[in-house]
Design a protein that fits this description.
Layout lengths: L16 E7 L4 H12 L4 E2 L3 E5 L4 E5 L1 E6 L4 E7 L17 E7 L2 H12 L7 E6 L9 H4 L32 H13 L5 E8 L4 H13 L4 E4 L6 E10 L1 H15 L6 E13 L2 E8 L3 H16 L12 E8 L7 H8 L5 E4 L4 E8 L2 E9 L1
Antiparallel strand pairs: 1-7, 1-8, 2-5, 3-4, 5-6, 6-7, 9-11, 9-16, 10-14, 12-13, 12-15, 13-14, 16-17
Helix pairs in contact: 6-7
Length: about 375
């Protein structure tokens, strides 16, 4: 009988899944597209796959493409085996560039078809099943005692005369299937289908202020800076955090009711300043002149997450527009004086546009903002 796995059930076990390694120079998006074309899947860039390293007590994130095929109740993951911080998902199989996972009905049959088909894609160097292992090699007494010769993918080599002795694997390098299944369970039933959301006004600055910002970025070019793209400029009213679909619907409904009595709000940008996130790491932002209409709206908005039974941190409301992040600023505490000497703020009045509910998505260790609802 085929194993059926519903999205709502926490039934992942070693018998439910196949894990396949892929070695290729193809970039992730192009590989996902090639798989979609050849196997009629619909892999889509999703939230980063979160993997917990128990030995180091740290969570690492890897680029993740995902598709759920309803007729077969089949989950498809295409996950990068290496992230932008040079962390490896499967240290034992680090020669693989990507990991493909199939979970659900008849996963073994689909895995065989996947391997057969993907080998015909140009620039696929190798596809190989990691789990369940297909190796049936009987080990010699010498190998059983620890002198086992392995190829680069961790499989036994039968010709010991041509093989070099394998180095003893460190415990943290071993493939921990139990931990990985826990990672899949967490991603599939928690993080991937909840949304980190916030309410904010999109901001469009005039050309004069954008030129000032460009000049500032050029003057800081020797620093480790990460300018925020202009299309991402926004003024956050409330960061709500992780929310379920039902909670999001309640937030949208409550926000609509509040905005019925709110007239257009005009703001004035009057300064530049910084937040220090940790030592010598800063966020540069444009400040908003005190505005009672904005403050009163934020107070009303702040009550909504509590009504939706979402716990949020009590933080001071400082209306601002983030424009840049700086890591390890060389001059340390003098950054405020440095920035203000370069950036001559010209007061700018803006009429706020439509309040928007955004989702924050982590993709390859960077933040992307997707629109959920425009009020």
């Amino acid at each position: 009988m085929s194993i059926e796995l519903e999205l709502s059930e926490h039934t992942i076990s070693p018998d439910n899944l196949t894990i396949i390694g892929i070695t290729t120079p193809i970039e992730g998006f192009a590989l996902a597209q090639a798989i979609n074309i050849n196997l009629y899947t619909k892999l889509t860039l999703f939230k980063d796959f979160e993997s917990y390293n128990q030995a180091k007590n740290e969570t690492n994130r890897f680029k993740n493409y995902y598709y759920y095929h309803s007729p077969y109740r089949l989950h498809n993951f295409l996950i990068s085996n290496k992230n932008s911080d040079d962390k490896i998902l499967f240290q034992k199989y680090k020669k693989f560039d990507y990991i493909f996972i199939l979970i659900g009905r008849d996963h073994k049959r689909h895995a065989r078809n996947f391997i057969k088909t993907i080998k015909d894609i140009y620039n696929i160097v190798l596809t190989k099943t990691i789990y369940p292992t297909t190796s049936k090699i009987k080990l010699s007494q010498e190998q059983e005692e620890g002198n086992l010769n392995l190829d680069i993918f961790g499989e036994p080599i039968t010709d010991s005369q041509t093989a070099k002795p394998a180095k003893k694997k460190r415990k943290e390098d071993e493939f921990n299937l139990t931990q990985f299944i826990e990672d899949i369970d967490f991603n599939l039933f928690n993080s991937m289908f909840e949304k980190k959301i916030f309410l904010a006004y999109p901001i469009v600055l005039n050309e004069a202020l954008n030129r000032q910002i460009n000049n500032l970025m050029e003057s800081l070019s020797q620093e480790n800076i990460r300018p925020i793209p202009k299309e991402k400029y926004h003024l956050t009213l409330e960061f709500i955090g992780t929310s379920s679909t039902r909670q999001i619907q309640n937030i949208i409904s409550s926000t609509k009711d509040i905005l019925k009595d709110i007239k257009d709000i005009e703001i004035e940008i009057d300064r530049i300043d910084v937040f220090e996130t940790k030592k010598n790491n800063f966020v540069l932002w444009l400040g908003i002149k005190e505005n009672q209409a904005l403050i009163q709206l934020q107070k009303k908005i702040k009550s909504i997450p509590k009504e939706a039974k979402i716990n949020i941190e009590e933080t001071e409301f400082i209306p601002h527009i983030s424009i840049c992040r700086i890591n390890n600023y060389q001059k340390g505490i003098s950054i405020k004086e440095d920035i203000k000497s370069i950036f001559k703020i010209e007061n700018l009045q803006l009429k706020l546009s439509c309040l928007t509910l955004f989702e924050t998505i982590s993709v390859d260790n960077t933040q992307r903002y997707d629109i959920i609802y425009v009020f």
